[in-house]
Amino acid sequence: MASNALKSSILEDLRQAPGHLLRRCQQIAVSVFLDECQTWDLTPVQFAVLVELNRHGPHDQVGLGGALAMDRTTIGVVVKKLEERGLVERSISEQDRRSKPVSITSAGSALIRNVLPAAEMAQDRMLAPLNDAERSQFMRLLGKVADGNNSESRAPLRR
Predict the structure, then answer these.
(1) Is 153 within a domain?
(2) Distance in angstroms (rounded) separating the CA atoms of residues 1 and 106
(3) 61 three-class SS
(4) DSSP-assigned states of every residue in 71-83
């Protein structure tokens, strides 16, 4: 149960509420990523899909969405856009004809290699207000909040 102090502080200044601050941070994260990666016309979600496929190999679309905490509709739209650009391809599974494994193409792998320095710069820019110790603590706590509330998500992370 939330403390009374937190409840009254939300009423006094919504801008200090955790949900509001997380939403603002998400807006900033997307804006900074798009700024750094504009040359490649890639969204943060598209980047995440390409990184996951590049690192872990082919996934069926449902598994890919679960690995990235994306709902079926979102992952379907993202994969379609990436497929149209020739960055991923879908095939039909020999084990289950309904399953369509998604894999990264050589063009997708090349794009990830090219965009990676800019994506890393975006991460650094987002954390620029923090010193090294604060960055470490912030990332640990942010992960704890995300993991501890995973079951609350409409698209929970599935490992």
Answers:
(1) no
(2) 50
(3) helix
(4) -HHHHHHHHHHHH
What is the 8-class DSSP label of residue 156? -
User: How many of the other CB atoms lie within 10 Å of CB of 143?
Assistant: 10
Could you read off the pLDDT of 43-96 as tens digits, one per residue? 999 999 999 999 999 999 989 999 999 999 999 999 999 999 999 999 877 777
| Token pair for 118 | 């800019």
Report yes or no: 67 and 56 within 8 Å, Cβ to Cβ.
yes
Closest CA to 116 of 27, 41, 36, 59: 36
What is the number of domains present in the chain?
A: 2
**pTM to 2 decimal places:** 0.86
Helix (H) or strand (E) holding 34: helix 18-36
84 token code pair: 């149209």
Region for 89 from its dihedrals, namely left if φ exceeds 0, alpha if ψ lies in -120 to 50, beta otherwise: beta
Which domain, by its residues, includes 78?
42-118
- Regarding whether 65 and 101 lie in a shared domain, the answer is yes
- At 94-128, the pLDDT tens digits run 777 677 899 999 999 999 999 999 999 999 999 99
For the record, the structure tokens of 39 come out as 């040359």
Residue 89 burial (10 A CB sphere; 0-12, 13-18, 19+): middle
Q: What is the CATH number of the domain that holds 64?
A: 1.10.10.10
